[in-house]
Amino acid sequence: MTMLVTTFRMLVGLFVDDGSLALAIIVIVLLSWIFATLMPDFPIAAGAVLLVGCLGVLFTNVMKAAQR
Amino acid sequence: MIWTSAAPAVTTAFLSSLVEAVEAMTIVLAVVSIRGWRPAATGAFAGLSLLVVMVLALGPLLDRIPLHLLQLVIGVLLLLFGMRWLRKAILRAAGAIALHDETIAFATETEELRDQARRHEARLDWLAGLASFKAVVLEGLEVVFIVIAVGVGRGLLGAASLGALAACLVIVTVGFVIHRPLARVPENTLKFAVGVMLSAFGIFWTGEGLGVPWPGEDFAILVIAALFLVVALTAVAITRRAKAVDLT
Q1: Do the domain assignments include residue A30?
Q2: Please, is B204 exposed, middle or buried when counting C-beta atoms within 10 Å of its C-beta (0-12, 13-18, 19+)?
Q3: Whole-number average pLDDT of chain B
Q4: DSSP-derived secondary structure for B103-152
Q5: Is position A6 within any domain?
Q6: Chain A, nearest residue to B94 by Cα
Q7: What is d(CA B230, CA A62) in angstroms, rounded to the nearest whole number?
Q8: Are the C-beta atoms of residues B109 and A42 closer than 8 Å to each other?
Q9: Within the 46-65 window of chain A, which residues sit less than 8 Å (CB to CB) from chain B?
Q10: Which domain covers residue A23, as residue numbers?
Q11: According to the model, what pLDDT value does residue B19 have?
């Protein structure tokens, strides 16, 4: 059981270091999916939300982490 | 094979494998310095074998998943993985957190093994081999993920694997020759570059999975990477300036 938990933690650790960054990325992906679903004739909008959102999330997260 | 997608995929696989291989090699060399080549090589070989089995098992399974779903899942995982690397590389480049130092990692691992030697002399070969095995598996898992993630969407698994293999061969050869940790490899610069590329691939694949028709198709990866680079360098510059102002 302990080994399973350790392996699971190790796998999660591959993708999640700062929980707020991971959560923000997921929120941006969900927003992009909503845009892609609601505006199927204009799919590039979903791409723009995804790209600008992730760039913004990265910048904000780094600035906050540097201030800590 | 189109160079606009093949070149970034192979370069990303090569550079990320270079970083991971350096980190694994440091621990393997620490094992060598305490217990010799035999347990170190046995552990490393066992670790590599496990990774090969994982790739061989995962490969055929991935072919069964619908392409858009695969692109979306791999894309989101790449975003989480790549932006995690990039965030840390930015903070290290800005001096907000300490740089990873292979000499310190080597000294720490060597001290741990010496400590184990004092307590478990009879099982030391086994423990040394296990340390080598764990290092190869832990660092290798990241390489396997990156190779699959950048290669699977465009049928570039073979090319990305070759890029990763070439990096591992370079590091093993250099490590074998100089016989000490590769402290002069600019790890953070490599992680910075790889973080930028993985994040760009993440945006591209997630977008493809959502049905986004990227302008310029595969060429968009390079444009997205350039945007990530600009934002990352700006963040480094602002953070450095803020730290300099705080000091004065």
Answers
A1: yes
A2: buried
A3: 85
A4: HHHHHHHHHHHHHHHHH-GGGHHHHHHHHHHHHHHHHHHHHHHHHHHHHG
A5: no
A6: A66
A7: 14
A8: no
A9: 46-47, 50-51, 54-55, 57-59, 61-63, 65
A10: 18-67
A11: 86
Tell me how many domains chain A contains.
1
Give the residue on B whose Cα is nearest the Cα of A62.
B87
Lowest mean pLDDT among A25-29, B62-66, B179-183: B179-183
pLDDT, tens digit, for every residue of B197-216?
A: 999 999 999 999 999 999 98
**% helix, strand, coil for chain A, step of 5:** 85, 0, 15
Q: Is residue A31 part of a domain?
A: yes
B132-161 per-position pLDDT tens digit: 898 898 888 888 888 888 887 777 888 888
**Which three-class secondary structure state does DSSP give residue A42?**
coil
pLDDT in tens, B13-42: 899 888 888 888 888 888 888 778 888 889
Select the residue of B87, B210, B224 nearest A21 (Cβ to Cβ).
Answer: B87
Q: How far is A2 from chain B (nearest CA, A)?
A: 17
Rounded Cα distance, B44 and B49, in Å = 9
Confidence class of residue B4 from pLDDT cuts 50, 70 and 90? low
The answer to whether the Cβ–Cβ distance between B242 and A66 falls below 8 Å is yes
* DSSP secondary structure of B181-223: --TTS-HHHHHHHHHHHHHHHHHHHHHHHTT---TTGGGHHHH
Domain-embedded: residue A3: no
